[in-house]
Amino acid sequence: TASSLQGWLLFNDGTTTPATAGFVNGPGTPPLGTGSYGTAITQPVTKIVFGRVDAAYNNVLLSTLTQLSYSTYVDPTATNKTVNWYINVYLDTTGSGTTYNYRLDFAPPGSTPGVWFTWDTMTQPYWLLYNRSTKTFGAPGTLATVTAGLPANTRIIQGFSTNPAYPSIKF
After folding, report:
1. Residue 21 pairs with which residues in a beta bridge?
2. pTM of this prediction?
C-alpha cells in the first residue's frame, strides 16, 4: 500500500462532520498496484476535497495540460452508487493570474459498483465550462471541445480540486 499523496492534499470543505480517509489495501486490484486511498463520509452534507495548489499547477497555460486521469471504485454496499468524483479546474482568460473567470468541471456519471474504473479526462466527454460572470454552463463535451473558444493564453490558476459527490467512493 502506498503512503504518500504525492503533493495532493485532503481537506474538509467547510462542513461540520469530517470524513475519514487513508491508505488501504485493495479493494480488489487497484490500477496502480495493491493499495488505494479510501474515503468514508458518514453524513450526506459532508464534502471533502482533494486539492493540488502548489506552484507547479498555478498560473500555467491550459494548453500544457496533456494528461489527467484518475481511477475510482464505488463500494457495492454504498447507499448511492450512481455518483462519482468530479474535478474542478479554475481558469483565468484575462491575464490577471489571481482570479478565475471560468471553471472547468469534469463530471462523469457513476461507475459500476465493485469495479475499478479509470477516467481519462482528456478524451471522455464529461467536461462542462462554467462562465463565472454569467453564471452559466456550456454544453458538455471533451476538454478540447469545451475549451475551443477560449483564448490561447488561458491559464490554470488555484490548482486542481476533486470532490466526491457522495460517500463510499474510493479514489
Report:
1. 39
2. 0.82
Backbone angles phi, psi at 76, to 5 degrees: -60, -20
Place of cell 491550459: 62
d(CA 124, CA 141): 8
- Cα angle at 167 between 161 and 168, to 5 degrees? 105
Q: Which tens digit of pLDDT belongs to each residue from 53-91?
A: 667 778 889 998 888 888 888 888 876 666 677 888 889
What type of residue is 166?
A: Y
Listed residue (165, 100, 97) closest to 133, CA to CA:
100
Cβ 147 vs Cβ 104: under 8 Å: yes
- List C-alpha distances in Å: 77 to 20, 36, 171: 17, 18, 16
Burial pattern 16-33, b for ≥16 Cβ within 10 A else e, equals eeebebeeeeebeebeee
3-state secondary structure of 34: coil
> Is residue 51 classed as helix, strand or coil in its secondary structure?
strand
The Cα–Cα gap between 9 and 147 comes to 27
